[in-house]
Structures are given as C-alpha cells and as structure tokens.
Amino acid sequence: MKRSCLLLTLTLAIGCKPANDPAVKFSVLFTKEMSDQAQDGRLLLMLADNDKGEPRTQISDGLNTQLIFGVDVEGMKPGDEIAIGDDAFGFPIRSISHVPKGEYFVQALINRYETFKLKSGHIVKLPPDHGEGQQWNSKPGNFYSKPQKISFDPASQEVVKITMDQKIAPIEEPKDSKYIKHIRIQSKLLTEFWGKPMYLGAHVLVPEGFDTHPEARYPLMVFHGHFPSDFGGFSETPPDAKMDTTDYNARFGIYGYNKFQAREAHNFYTQWISKNFPRFLIIEIQHANPYYDDSYAVNSANVGPYGDAIMQELIPAIEKQFRGIGQGWARFTYGGSTGGWEALAVQMFYPDDFNGCFAACPDPIDFRAYCLVDLYKDKNAYWYESNFKKVPRPSHRNYLGQIQSTTEESNHFELTLGTKSRSGQQWDIWEAVYSPQGDDGYPKRIFDKLTGEIDPEVAKYWKEHYDLRHILERDWATLGPKLKGKIHIYCGDMDNYYLNNAVYLMEDFLKRTNNPFYGGEVAYGDRAEHCWNGDPVNPNYISRLRYNTMYLPKILKRITESAPKGADLKSWRY
C-alpha cells in the first residue's frame, strides 16, 4: 500500500504509521479521472449512522452532527492510498478507535488547497472559493466518494478502502432580471496581496423606475452579511398556493416556514415597487476569500485589504454603473451577525463615507466579551477555572438558555475541518481577520486550538486593531464628531452566541460619550435570539426577514434631516 506522510498540526507532529498498523482503519484514494496532478488539502472521513442524507451534509458542531475525522495531505497523487487511523483528529469523537461498533455510511472528501504567494513573501496553502461561499462540502472541484455502508468494529484489523471518484460540479452564475443585477470586478489591491487574480462582486437591487428615469441618481445601501448566492429575500413571484407547508423549523418551533419566507420575499417586492417606498440602490457584496465566506469588509494582515478594495474599487464601480450619488451623506450600511459587525466597523473605519449604520446582533464588538471569553483577563478560552474545578464555557444556547455546544467543542470541530485557521468556520475567520500574520504566513492563534490557552500578545494586537468599543473610546475625540447620530445597534438579550454581552459593554461607553454625545440608538429584544434587529412588535422569525423594509424608512428620515445644502434630494424621489 502506498502511503503519503501526514502531518497533523496540533501540539506536535505525528509521523507516518506503517500500512499494517492496527490503528489504521481506512484507506482513501482518488482516481486519475479526478486529476492527474498531486493534491494538497484537508482529507475528511465521515461516518453517519443513517442514510437521511450523504454524510457530508450531516456534519456540524450541533447536537445532531454525525462523525468526521480530518488529516492534512500534501502531494497526494492519483492512486495514492492515504491511511487514516488514530492520527486523524475527530469530532465529536476524538479518535477513530473510540467509534462505537455498528453499521455506518462512510464517505471521504478532500477540500483541495491552492498555493498562494503572498505580497508579504510567505507561501500558504488554502482552499480558494469557487462561487459557493467557502463551503467545504459543496465546493466545486472537491473530490468525494459515494457513501457506502459498512460494519465497523474498532477492534477489527480490517482496513476499509474508499475511492474518491466524484467531483462537485461548478455553480451556475446568477442571471440578471429587471430588478436584480450583478457586477464582478478584478481587484488590483487584492490581486497584489494574494499573488493571483482576486475578484469582488455584488448583487444589486435597483429601484422601481430605474430604466424609465435615466436622470435619477440614487443613495446606496450596503447590506452586509454572509456570502449571498444571489440577492435574497426578494421575489417577484408569490408562493404557490400548493407549496408544501409540512416542513418544520426546529429553531422557531413552527411548520411551513419555507412558504412563510417565500411570502415575505414577495411582500418585499410589492413594497419595493409601491409609489411611496424609498428609491434606493441596495447591494449585497460577494467577498468570499480563502479563509471564509466573506472578508469582514476591513483591511487584515491575513485576509488582505478588503476594506479598501470594497471602498475604493467595488463601490465606485457600482455607483458608476448604476447611477449612485457617490457621496457619504447618501451611503448607509446595515446587516446582522457578521453583517452587523461589518456595518459598525466600516462606519467607524470609513466615517466620512457613510451616513449611518444599523448593526443587528453584531459579532463581538468588545473583546472583553468575546462571546463568553474576556480576552484580556482570562487565561483559557475553554474553561472557567477555580482552585478545584473547571467548568466548560458554552458557545451556543437557545432562548431558554439550554446549551447546545461549548467553546471547546466548536473549536475542535473547526480543528477537524482544518489546521492553521483553515476550517472556513466562525472562530477561525475571527482569527484570520483580527490576528497578525505568523512567521509561517498563517494567522497567529489567539488561543491554542487544542487546549484553549490564550496568547496575551495576540490579544493586545486584536485590541488595538479590531476591538470596536476600545477603538471608539480611544479615538472618540476625532471619531465622535464624524459619527454623531450614525450608530444604531440592536441585539436580543438571549442571543444564541451571547453577543448581547458585548453590546452591553458598548452601550455603557456610548451612554457616557460627550463632545459630542453619540446620539444614536441601542435596543434589546426580550428573550429574542440571534438576528433580532430592532423590531419591538413582531417575533424574531418575522423581523429577521425584514432588514430592508425596517431600516429603509429610518434611512430616508436620516437623509432628509442630514443631507448637506445643495444635495440631490429630488431626482430619486419620483
């Protein structure tokens, strides 16, 4: 049996094991029909105790996940059999030898890496996005095997052979319609950083009358959030009356949520074309990168100058093509979760370029509440510690406070998917965006991924560059006058990821501001979970679908009150 040496980067390097080692349980190869070239990447082995879907579709860090194990491979050639055993890092079971005896559906997949020669001189290997939004289990070009049913016994010395002879197909580009347009540009700034062509794109919702009012120029709304395959929550077609309503949404405890979402999307359309609705441009940005499904819209030592690329290259191109006004008083930004952090961050980092931000359920905006970790005082991210006891820190809860996962579990799930911040998941992208670049070209760890031990020097870097509350407080004398009346933050007080804790700390600061007073808004939803965005009337499962219709009237009011003398307030008010 041929064998490529595997390096598992945890706290030590684990060398190759002989093919007849009893710890080896699986052997994985890919065929020459997939590629005749050697491959680098993360080789993933998945086991599912059911056939409700392919194992690759049943993996998460939640309570219902199936089993996954991962190893790094370099130079894996077609026909090479990679032996997988207890040197593979697993989730939620750490070692393959601890998998219970039984019948499973097994599947293998390689998340393929490319080599990037960075502007810094470092060479790194990362999974590029191929239009899917950095999703390892649906990334075009990744090799995988068909699921096969096996009887597994950890005490057996039998080696299960798996052949990856399938390749995920390319994704079809979205097509323009009357109201939804698309733009894609090559970014000079990002291409220089990554050492190969890099692109930015956006889905653009144009207003009613866009074609029949060529003289009109429009305010621009930047709706930040995770990777959008197309402009979401907008549909010219009402839901089919016969649409199935038996689907059950466990999070909200209701049936027929798919039809409800479709109805809300059509309701947005009917408002959008109505006579009195604001005539704005709304964009959703595509800025997936080798670390995540979006860049966090700021400049980063590891992810690149996405902030400048979006502000200096993409937005001007959009405003030129779609007749944007192109001035700060006529630009606004909003979003939730990742998009909430981005909305506040770009308003702060480009204070003259936006006239207001609406940040809902933002990712941690004060690192004293990095979810449930104080990065400046705590020594370990995974545990509350006392002299005689260690208690795990939760990472996810429901609105009743019931825990679904811990911080250690979430990070060990990521470590299974990829070493060196390459999992494409939440904790790793925070690290990739906020950390300095390490000597190896990858992000410096904010804490040891295996043990949770926090690096205080990296925490200091985070504080000065990306702790939004700290930066506001540090620079209020210069930032304050530019941000007066522009900051609006909303969060449920039972946010699933404990993001409300950082909002409390931000609010404490904002309420103390003077010269000037911040003059914005901070509000909380009672027992509201993640994605609550400021609606005091409707439940979260409704309001989370109404970001645009909730914020656009507030933005129109802000424009009316704050536009400079001589500003164009007429051409787009038809």
Automatic annotation (TrEMBL):
Signal peptide (UniProt feature, chain positions): none
Gene3D superfamilies registered for this protein in UniProt: alpha/beta hydrolase
PROSITE patterns associated with the record: PROKAR_LIPOPROTEIN
Name of the molecule in the record: Esterase
The organism of origin for this protein: Chryseosolibacter histidini
Lineage: Bacteria, Pseudomonadati, Bacteroidota, Cytophagia, Cytophagales
